[in-house]
Amino acid sequence: MSEVITVHEVGLRDGLQNQPRVVPTEGKLRLLDALLDAGLQSIEAASFVSPKAVPQMADAAEIFANLPQDRGVGYEALVPNEKGYERAVDAGVTTVALVLAATDTFNRRNINMSLDEAIRVNEAVIRRAKADGIRARSYLSVVAACPYEGVVPPETVFDLAARMFDAGADELALGDSTGAGSPPQMAHLFETLAHRYGPERLAGHFHDTRAMGLTLTWVAIECGIRKFDSSIGGLGGCPFAPGATGNLATEDLVFMATEAGFETGIDVGGLRRAVAVAEELTGQTLGGRITPFLDSREKRRAAN
Ligand code: HMG
Ligand code: MG
To answer: Residues within 5 Å of ion ligand 2 by Cβ?
Structure first.
């Protein structure tokens, strides 16, 4: 039996948080249905952040009240602080994703906290989650370089990872938030952390700004990592990370993983239908780097 790669779809959160057009709840649920039909089993559905900071996520509680619960799918929500955690728990969330950046300036811009304060808040929320029986994922953002402070020393990443795991984080996702990472840099981070904590507790979260998303995925696969975040059609970016484009596209990740002999349980045809829904909802032209090839393959097949 071939090995499995878990694809964690973040388009509904990382993708839609950055859209100029606020997608209505009904549209988000329609996109979710298309993602489930394509076979996605791990989904970050929303974030419980300040609606003043990110109006696109103001309906997080309504999204969670309407998630199909009969399909064995794991849903998760991003929370930036204790208030977000409480709102998420009230909405029935069972996995929270915390967000900590590796630099002081990025934390200030993203969550209006200094690095020290952000560490304390993340630790407090993780401890609370563990006490409440809630799964806690920790995002560590700008692990390669920060758009405000430049290259991030790997020791900073290792120190922050240790703080989050010591507090009880179940999983750590390394965020290359602006797509600034190089293969040797990310190999060093994943190799070291996989050795310390086990590859099964790590995930890769790559924005594809410099077309490095798949390369960095492969680097992480070689370090034993088997869980990756991606967003349908490459939707997304962070409103507080200038220059960042969308995440690695789910269809690119699934195509590459399948070509490499991994099981994902996800159907590329179904992803194409989900991309069409996301395009309709956002008014953007979307699609991963594999799109022109898939288009021409479909045309060839239709002609035969
Ligand atoms: P603040 O203004 O400093 O918050 O924002 P505050 O604690 O001073 O409270 C101010 C007001 O906000 C109060 O309301 C609070 O109740 C309310 P008021 O009294 O004025 O009516 N408030 C909240 N409301 C709803 N939900 C909450 C919440 N917290 C406070 N959770 C805060 C601080 C963290 C809230 C704000 O900066 C924020 O929401 N930031 C989120 C930014 C965000 O969503 N960024 C994108 C996600 S991170 C990302 O994309 C990176 C990632 O993908 C990984 C990668 O790529 O590397 C994860
Ligand atoms: Mg992101």
So the answer is: 14
CA of 121 to the centre of ligand 1 (A): 12
Tens-place pLDDT, residues 170-208: 999 999 999 999 999 999 999 999 999 999 999 999 999
Q: Name the DSSP letter for residue 252.
A: H
Ligand 1 pocket member 47 (CB < 6 A):
yes
Candidates 299, 297, 298, 273; CA nearest to 286 is: 273
Active site residue 238: yes
Could you tell me if 237 and 18 are in contact, meaning their C-beta atoms sit under 8 angstroms apart?
A: yes
Would you state the structure tokens that stand for residue 238, as one six-digit string?
Answer: 């962070």
pTM above 0.90, yes or no: yes
**Ligand 1 close to Cβ of residue 49 (< 6 A):** yes
Residue 140 near residue 184 (C-beta atoms within 8 A): no
Residues 6+ apart with CB under 8 A from 58: 51
Q: What is d(CA 246, CA 279) in angstroms, rounded to the nearest whole number?
A: 14
